[in-house]
Design brief:
- It is built from 13 helices and 16 strands.
- By secondary structure, the protein is of the alpha/beta class.
- The protein has two domains: 138 residues, Aspartate Aminotransferase, domain 1 (Alpha-Beta Complex), CATH 3.90.1150; 264 residues, 3-Layer(aba) Sandwich (Aspartate Aminotransferase, domain 2), CATH 3.40.640.
- The protein has a seven-stranded mixed beta sheet, with helices on both faces. Strands 11, 12, 13, 15 and 16 form a five-stranded antiparallel beta sheet that branches. Strands 1-2-3-14 form a four-stranded mixed beta sheet.
- A hairpin with a 4-residue loop joins β12 and β13.
- α4 packs across α10, α11 packs parallel to α13 and α12 crosses α13.
- It is globular.
- Belongs to the class-III pyridoxal-phosphate-dependent aminotransferase family.
Length: 444
């Protein structure tokens, strides 16, 4: 317990906050009656505290968004300063904070990108990227992977591949395909080269069968996150780019989860040297301190809208508080060499540490990832790769929480996704807890 980090002593305790939540708050993705939300009061860096003084090490980065950690002083200060000057302004105005944020993002993007359209989050970033691709090409269909999550609005949730799409399928023109996942290959591949070739051949067949003249865009997470941190085989993204070129399809990279330092680069696309036509972002751009997202637009598409009406907008597009937080986040990440920290942590501490865990524990089928973006895939049988049960995953979550570690779990995987500012000591502490918990679980 570190009471010094709790900003003020109050008589409110965890039970009070929990009871009030259950009475008034309707939560995402849940049967409301089954919920058991964790109570959190405050945070700093990689740590969080509840009202009773319990401390947690946050290896979830919440929803993989607090890349700069909790309560970064420079970002908080920038928000306060902007709040004192101008709290809100219509998107139709020219605003200095918005200009500065857009300029910084364009400068980080690959060559050939020149403008940013700001949204309220990641889903509407994808929504608007899809809209731009459809308007630009005059075509309708959008191809995306079954192994994806793109957000919870009209087109974004139907572009999503995972099961959350199914109760929401009201948008039209969406087609799905299988992107690579060698550990559970859909293509009977036994190595990366085969997986890559066969996944590209499968995508080509989908394009040909759907009719290239009807396909506006291929939307892909630059490094699929929620679906399992599925690092694509070498040359896959290049192959998708070539298919897009061949058939006149707009390539959209969703960098919402993978961008802004998560993989050790500003954008995960830098790992492949592949340039899409549109890039969507949110989360790490300001670590979620104020809700924001956006579309980075390539010159060819932005020029099209110089003379063609863009039928889209949001009251809070380019909100000054969000813009100020983006400027401060990007500047602080550069000044404090946070991407360099990610490289160091990944190469020297987290990557090797997770590989050691995999050697020790039979329950680990595979460890994969980059930067501070790793998955531990848990299986009950190494040979058959049968997934561990949902009950085992709940036990893991609870045991980790009891030991003060917040985890991000998805299906049969632990996603090891600490903030980009995580220290060596914090990673070693988390690795120790994973080791203890997997030992306990493995003994059952
Ligand atoms: N795209 C990806 C890759 C995501 O991981 C997410 C959220 O997890 C989204 C889009 C949706 O972002 P938001 O929840 O901000 O709408």
């Amino acid at each position: 317990m570190d009471m010094s980090s709790i900003s003020h002593v109050s008589t409110i305790d965890n039970d009070d906050v929990y009871a009030m939540d259950r009475k008034y708050v309707f939560h995402s993705w849940s049967i409301q009656g089954n919920l058991n939300p964790l109570v959190i009061k405050s945070g700093k860096g990689s740590k969080l505290w509840d009202f009773d003084g319990n401390e947690y090490l946050d290896f979830s980065s919440q929803l993989v968004n607090t890349n700069i950690g909790h309560q970064h002083p420079k970002v908080v200060e920038a928000i306060v300063k902007q709040a004192q000057e101008l709290m809100t302004i219509a998107p139709s105005t020219a605003n200095l904070a918005r200009n500065e944020a857009a300029k910084r993002i364009v400068e980080l993007a690959p060559e050939g990108f020149n403008k940013v359209f700001f949204t309220n989050g990641g889903a509407d970033a994808n929504e608007n990227a899809i809209r731009m691709a459809r308007l630009f090409t005059g075509k309708t269909k959008v191809l995306s992977s079954y192994r994806s999550y793109h957000g919870n609005t009209g087109s974004a949730i139907v572009a999503t591949g995972d099961a959350r799409r199914i109760p929401n399928e009201y948008a039209r023109g969406h087609v799905h395909f299988f992107s690579p996942y060698l550990y559970r290959s859909e293509f009977h591949a036994s190595n990366e080269v085969e997986e890559c070739e066969r996944a590209l051949q499968h995508l080509r067949r989908i394009i040909e069968s759907e009719g290239p003249s009807s396909i506006a865009a291929i939307l892909l997470e630059s490094l699929p996150g929620t679906a399992g941190i599925l690092v694509p085989p070498k040359n896959y993204m290049q192959g998708v780019r070539e298919l897009c070129n061949e058939f006149g399809i707009i390539m959209i990279f969703d960098e919402v989860m993978a961008g802004f330092g998560r993989t050790g680069k500003w954008f995960a696309l830098e790992h492949y040297g592949v340039t899409p036509d549109l890039i969507t972002f949110a989360k790490g751009v300001n670590s979620g301190y104020i809700p924001v997202g956006g579309v980075i637009i390539s010159e060819k598409i932005s020029q099209y809208f110089d003379t063609t009406f863009f039928p889209g907008g949001l009251t809070y597009s380019g909100h000054p508080l969000a813009m100020a937080s983006i400027v401060a986040t990007i500047d602080a990440m550069k000044e404090e060499k946070i991407l360099e920290n990610v490289e160091y942590i990944s190469n020297e501490v987290l990557g090797p540490g997770l590989k050691k865990l995999a050697e020790k524990h039979n329950i680990i089928g595979e460890v994969r990832g980059a930067g501070v973006f790793w998955a531990i895939e848990l299986v009950s049988n190494q040979k058959t790769k049968e997934r561990v049960s949902a009950q085992t995953m709940t036990e893991i979550k609870n045991l980790c929480a009891q030991k003060g570690l917040l985890t991000f779990l998805a299906d049969n995987r632990i996603h090891v996704v600490p903030p980009c500012i995580v220290t060596k000591e914090e990673v070693l502490e988390a690795l120790k807890i994973y080791d203890e918990v997997l030992t306990e679980i493995g003994c059952h």
